[in-house]
Amino acid sequence: xxxxxxxxxxxxxxxxxxxxxxxxxxxxxxxxxxxxxxxxxxxxxxxxxxxxxxxxxxxxxxxxxxxxxxxxxxxxxxxxxxxxxxxxxxxxxxxxxxxxxxxxxxxxxxxxxxxxxxxxxxxxxxxxxxxxxxxxxxxxxxxxxxxxxx
Length: 150
Fold this sequence. Notes:
The structure is a single chain. By secondary structure, the chain is of the alpha+beta class. It has a single domain (21-145), classed as Sandwich (Immunoglobulin-like). The protein is built from three helices and nine strands. The strands form two sheets. Strands 1, 4, 5, 8 and 9 form a five-stranded mixed sheet that branches. A four-stranded antiparallel sheet has the order 3-2-6-7, with no helix packed on it. The chain starts with a helix and ends in a 5-residue tail after the last strand. 23% of the residues are buried. The model has no long low-confidence stretch (mean pLDDT 84).
């Protein structure tokens, strides 16, 4: 009996996921706005990983009311460290810090599409990243900054 195409495709996908290079990120986020912000790291690319998915991806997987709140809230003037976050990042995948203005529930986050003055994203790299979130002309801006020597 010969394997079907679907079985071969599944085996190839599992092999690719299992062999995807791992990358570890660590982000310090400083909220320089006057509002709380909701932040999280999202992956653009495959394979799907729940911990690196945005709220819109979560909504495709499960009913919103059954999901935990997405992201972390940072009060104005505060800094949060993400700790180490590891995922599978084959060629073509990238990680972003996504930032939303306010303390939002999952449905509220999904309603803030990109581009929006209440949402920002910044590319992060597999190392330590320092990010400052600020307002500029009523628009949320997230920038990676060089850390100052200690």
